[in-house]
Amino acid sequence: MGVYLFHPDSTDTLPPFIGMDVNHDSPKCVSLFESWKVRMHHSFTLVVGSALCCLVAAPAHAGPVLYATSYYSNNAYAVNSDGSTTVFGATIGHASGIALDSAGNVYVGSETSNAIYKFTSTGTLIGTFTTDHLNAPTGMAFDSTGKLFVANGDSGEINEYSSSGAFLGTFATVPIGSNGLLHGLLIDPTGNVYVTDILSGGTGNLIKYNSAGTVLATTTTGLSYPGQIARDSLGNLYVSNAGGDHIVKFDSLLNSLGNFASGTGANNYGVAYDAATNTFYQGTFGPSGNPSGPIQRFDANGSSLGFVAADQTTAYFLAVARTEVPAPVPEPSTLIGSLVMCGMFGAALGYKRLQGQTAV
């Protein structure tokens, strides 16, 4: 990952002062300012040489990139950037919902204990977040103010909790009926709340509420045993549909956009979107039997990119890890000034070396 700026006398085959975007499989040349705009959300490290000035994006965080709960294994785990997994340091009976706060702490629901546990980003147990008004907690999400919303699978209640775990009240109640299950939950940047529920017989709903708890829209189109909900950067919604082991796509008004991707696991309830890489993950609730892992990865077009977590067998709900806060990127004028100074410094070093060689 990086943008490279070459000295005019460089013997590299790229034209002088042209950047290379190496985030793509086939690197492409882009202008300096285009590169700067593309990289404006990353931190940069300036590397100086006698005949080369190089602006390189700092490496990505080497820790967890994804979290998953394992219902049958009674735990949660992190999928690390090197492909390994780290199991959390506590037993979580029938681990279900999972969410991250703004600091990167991980919250995991237990359907056995009717509790939510708080962990560090590396899986160390901090303590019990809450046991208040919980009945098989499944979908969970934080809003922009730091409140945690929890879907209670067996009661149909959506409850709100403060950042310290205090029960704040019931946001809404979904009539799930007998043998029903309130399942996935997502909150968009404007405070709208989306939930899925499984009705008796496996049919399902996707419901949209405004921030006051008023129903704005509902749909049942294409849903069969719906699970977790994800949202892309354009506002489209993605529901993992265990009934057909595929992901169904909707616009923000809940109009169906058809099937987005098809999984190959068993009972695919989990889905998550990684905005940094524009990719999707789908998790397998039941033992997948897939030696490549229970979590399948898809590109923005729904094409499979393979599997992850090969040493695990299930992945019920998923959550993408928080990324590091990028360092401020300098204004273009400051950036150009730094590059000019960099080139002058490199030229000076070269001149000094030349003098040294002449003196000998």
Task: Give an account of the 3D structure.
With 360 residues, the chain is mainly beta. It has two domains: 19-58 and 334-359, no CATH class; 64-320, TolB, C-terminal domain (Neuraminidase, 6 Propeller). The chain is 10% helix and 41% strand. The chain has two helices and 28 strands. The protein has helices at residues 32-38, 332-359; strands at 19-21, 28-30, 44-48, 53-57, 64-70, 75-80, 85-87, 95-100, 106-110, 115-119, 125-130, 137-142, 148-152, 157-161, 167-173, 181-187, 193-198, 204-209, 215-219, 226-231, 237-241, 246-250, 256-262, 270-274, 279-283, 295-298, 304-308, 318-320. The strands form eight sheets. Strands 7-6-5-28 form a four-stranded antiparallel β-sheet, with no helix packed on it. The chain has a four-stranded antiparallel β-sheet with strand order 8-9-10-11, with no helix packed on it. It has a four-stranded antiparallel β-sheet with strand order 12-13-14-15, with no helix packed on it. The longest helix has 28 residues, at 332-359. The protein is globular and about 45 Å long. Residues 1-61, 324-336, 338-342 and 345-354 have low confidence and may be disordered.
